[in-house]
Amino acid sequence: MSSAMGSPTNVFWHECAVGKGERQKLVNQQGCVVWITGLSGSGKSTLACSLNRELHSRGKLSYVLDGDNLRHGLNKNLGFSPEDRTENIRRVGEVSKLFADAGLICIASLISPYRKDRDACRALMTDANFIEVFMNIPLDVCERRDTKGLYKLARAGKIKGFTGIDDPYEPPLNCEIKIEQKNGVCPTPCDMAVQVVSYLDGNGFLRA
Q1: How much is the pLDDT for 1?
Q2: Residues 17-63 pLDDT 10s
């Protein structure tokens, strides 16, 4: 018997004849996860969509897992408590792993504020195909943008546990890519995408 939670019993892994290597040859790329993390308003979704478009223009197959979009379906039963945030990231990590195994470049765009949760997603990968992208944009810049009006609500006390205001954001310690301002100017969506694509190309992910 298996329980609803925890590790299932009497369940066995089934291998298929077509493996990851064959799938990667078919699409001429290496399956991987590009995990974009940062504060609300830092540009995660903007980068994810721009990167998706840039990869598409180069004939590369990618898919975006957006944190807000996933809360409309896969994670719609989760809130924003520390426990629910951890489960939210765990689920996305597992789905990202499947996309990468299928040979796709999976672009996961989530605040993912806790370092241990992001590290747990990295640990799911059996090879070096987890690319952490840190949107290192200052809080004051993100708050000025406030495209969703969430910072205003958080400052007014109408949203509790809001990352960067009354809940911590733990920046990566050893991310592969860091997106940040230069001379006080934020990079354009195109420039951000090119920075990530250059990393992917230079590390062999854009060929089988």
Answers
A1: 35
A2: 899 999 999 999 999 999 999 999 999 999 999 999 999 999 999 99
Measured distance CA(38)–CA(40) in Å, rounded:
7
Q: Cα separation of 201 and 34, whole Å?
A: 13
Angle between helix 82-101 and 115-124 (nearest 10): 20
Say whether 112 is catalytic: yes
Alpha-carbon distance of 59 to 118, in angstroms, equals 29
Output the pLDDT for position 4: 52
Residue of 42, 50, 62, 112 marked active site: 112
Q: At which residue do the structure tokens 């954001």 appear? A: 169
The three state secondary structure string of the chain is CCCCCCCCCCCCCCCCCCCHHHHHHHHCCCCEEEEEEECCCCCHHHHHHHHHHHHHHCCCCEEEEEHHHHCCCCCCCCCCCHHHHHHHHHHHHHHHHHHHHCCCEEEEECCCCCHHHHHHHHHHCCCCCEEEEEEECCHHHHHHHCCCCHHHHHHCCCCCCCECCCECCCCCCCCCEEEECECCECCCHHHHHHHHHHHHHHCCCCCC
The amino acid sitting at 192 is M
Confidence label for 6 from pLDDT (cuts 50, 70 and 90):
low
Residue 141's φ and ψ, nearest 5 degrees, are: -70, -45
Span 133-161, pLDDT tens digits: 999 999 999 999 998 999 999 999 999 99
